[in-house]
Amino acid sequence: MNVSHSIFFTFTFLLFLPSSLQVSNHNTLVYKTCSTQTFNHPSYSQSLTSLFHQLITQSSQHKFFKTNQAIDDNTFLSGFFQCRNDINKIDCFTCLTSLLPHHISNTLCNDSTSARLQLEGCYVQYQTEQFQETTIHESKNNNIFHKVCGVLVVEYYVEFKELMDEAFMILENGIINSDGFYATSYKKVKLMAQCGGDLSTCACSECVGDAVMVAREECGSSVSAEIYLDNCFIRYTYMQKSGANINNNTKKVVAIIVGGAATLFLGLLFVSMCNSKKDDYE
């Protein structure tokens, strides 16, 4: 391999290394709930596809949107999507768009009368309704859709519990004065909560309180948790010292690799220039 080729490959490596470290996981499927009841009307699939397209179109401009699509004279599909408030509109649109191929290929909830599809950065929910049942009541039943508890704390348990009590109090107080989304860091804990886009402040606060109760009772000894209820979700991560050290070591390794590659590139460039001057003299 000659010098010019070496420079080219080194420079290409420098260009692509940073981008390879920034991989979005907003489109990762977290969970799905599909009704066991199916709707076999001939136009159901077409109506559901039309509903998906409406939601996807709106996701380029909004992070929450509700709509409906008629199936026949008596029945319609009501549906909505919501994106996490801390992601931008492009990621929101991409998150919604990633659901459509799965819907078309029937790998999600084939012909179910209702479903909820939760991705890391967004979720879609829809259900079949009758036109005479257009009055929608705000749900008070904060049922658990999905929960994930992380690994258990193996030391300093008492201090950890005290820290989490303080962190949960901050989360519950923060969501009251928010627009339905609140994210914060308290000491070594990162926390996030989000409510449904059309939920009142009072109902949002109650839902987050219920989610915190679930986290305390079912994930109380875990260093992380994700709790998804009907109308809200919360998550927290306790940054342990070992995790911080691993993260710092990773950053150091990346810095060494990038620095070494940059040094190699400059060295090869210098050699190339020297050889070029030598050829000129000859």
Brief descriptors of the model:
five-stranded antiparallel β-sheet; disordered N terminus; 45% helix; alpha+beta; single chain; 7 helices; 282 residues
Explained architecture:
- This protein is α+β, with helices and mostly antiparallel strands and 282 residues long.
- Helix content is 45%, strand content 24%.
- It contains 7 helices and 10 strands.
- It has helices at 3-20, 44-58, 89-97, 100-104, 157-176, 201-218, 241-281, and strands spanning 29-34, 64-70, 75-83, 114-119, 122-130, 144-149, 181-186, 189-195, 224-229, 232-238.
- A 5-stranded antiparallel sheet has the order 1-4-5-3-2, with helices on one face. A 5-stranded antiparallel sheet has the order 6-9-10-8-7, with helices on one face.
- Strand 9 (224-229) and strand 10 (232-238) form a beta hairpin.
- Helix 1 runs antiparallel to helix 7 and helix 5 (157-176) packs antiparallel against helix 6.
- The longest helix is centred in the last third of the chain and has 41 residues, at 241-281.
- The two termini are 23 Å apart.
